[in-house]
Amino acid sequence: VVPVVDGKVSFFNNQGTVDLLADITGYFSK
Questions:
Q1: What is the pLDDT of residues 1-30, one digit of tens each?
Q2: Which runs of consecutive H residues, i.e. helices, occur in 1-30?
Q3: From 24's CA, which of 5, 13, 15, 30 has a CA 20 to 30 Å away?
Q4: pLDDT value, residue 17
């Protein structure tokens, strides 16, 4: 159960990082 939870948390963290990078890229693109 623990490994699954860790993977889930890591997934959300990675997703958040991708969204943040996308926002920064869009900001500089303007």
A1: 455 565 555 555 566 677 777 787 777 776
A2: 2-29
A3: 5
A4: 72
Torsion on CA atoms 18, 23, 24, 28, rounded to nearest 10: 140
Q: At CA 17, angle to CA 15 and CA 3, rounded to 5?
A: 55
| Domain residue spans of the chain | 1-30
- And the tokens for 12? 């959300």
User: Residues of 7-25 as b/e, b for ≥16 C-beta within 10 angstroms?
Assistant: eeeeeeeeeeeeeeeeeee
